[in-house]
Amino acid sequence: METYTYVNIFETKGLEYLLLISFLILFVILVRYLSTPPSGR
Amino acid sequence: MTPSQAQSTSEVRRVIRFVLAELWPKGPLLTPFNLISIPVILLGAGILAVRFVYGLGSVTNLSQSFPWGIWIGFDVVTGVAFAGGAYVITFVVYVMGLEKYHPIVRATVLNGLLAYVFYAGALVLDLGRPWNVINPIIGNSFGYNSVLFLVSWHFMLYMLTELLEFSPVIAEWLDLKRLRRILNALTLGAVIFGVTLSTLHQAGLGALFLMAKPKIHPLWYTEFIPILFLVSSVYSGLSMIIVEGTISHRVFSNQLDAAKHHRFDEMLLGLGKGAAITMFVYYFFKALVFLHDRQFDLLASRWGAWYLFEVLGCVLVPCVMFIYAVRTRSTGLLRVAAIWSLFGILLNRLNISVIAFNWQAAVHYYPSWQEIVVTLTVIFTEIWVFRWIVVRMPVLREAHELPRAASPAVRPSV
Q: What is the pTM of this model?
């Protein structure tokens, strides 16, 4: 019985998914950052 | 002759007299720009005469291996990306209803119209048989399967659409009130049609390179070129508006009052915000394509260093500059970021169409001095026409306003 399965992050396109998820998070942060005026103004 | 016919005839005579009077030069002729541009335009006209009499080979370094040079790579492919501001700003104002940007619509549409007329028109210069340019339109060998079929139709239709979008300004200039009302009513339809055309042919220009897979360096070739061209045309257009608007506001400052100058700075910050967000999206698209194609090995070469310079140096860096400029409300930094991002667009388009094209060839293409002079001729002629129109027509000022500090002799009579 096989107890361990090696998951290749390149073969599964894992890197692409990670990049896409980080993009979505960073995109929201960027839009909010640009939309709110800096403190002290 | 009935009274209405007599009125129409006198109106036509008035318009003709007015246009003829407007043809006379206004302002000083001996300016630094004129002194530089006139000799270049005259030399360029001579080179073009030689090109059309003796063929492309007489003035260009183009060959069977390199059929596309800077007349396509810069004038057409880059020029159309630079003209992307027109479809972006008309969409923002007329469809999204952001009236804040309305004051720059006319200048941007004029810039887009002239860019298409001159840069897309430069396509004719590069055709070995220029008279065949009409074939996709008149039905002689339509070529439905060709991307060029789509691009040529779109260029023609978009030029007409932009002319329609700009036509109320011409009607105001000629003081044709009824015609202006009719043309104004057509604007929204023209804008929607124009935006649709633009998104398709900006991507279509990228699709032209899909068939050149074996010739383009793998770091630049991807099946997603059309999407990358479309997304980059948005921030390219916004950057061009920032640069062109800044120059226009300085050169034609007598057409604007202090309140307009202040509003313009506010608009610049809004445009910079749009450019920053679009560049961020574009940068991630590039990263995603890079990962998808698994091109890590290719980075360890001179081409890899050149690619990193384009993506990190000319996309990521100006993107960060835009973000910082918007947050600190620094319009100076915003302008630098806009120029830098335009340089990045130029580099990207030239990399795909010229520099990394046939990258394995033993003898590489470089433009002849005649090609460079003709490119400068196209740019200078466009600036001349832009200036001629802005000085006379209500592009930056309102129709009823007259330029400040101008003598009655040079005031437009509209």
A: 0.88
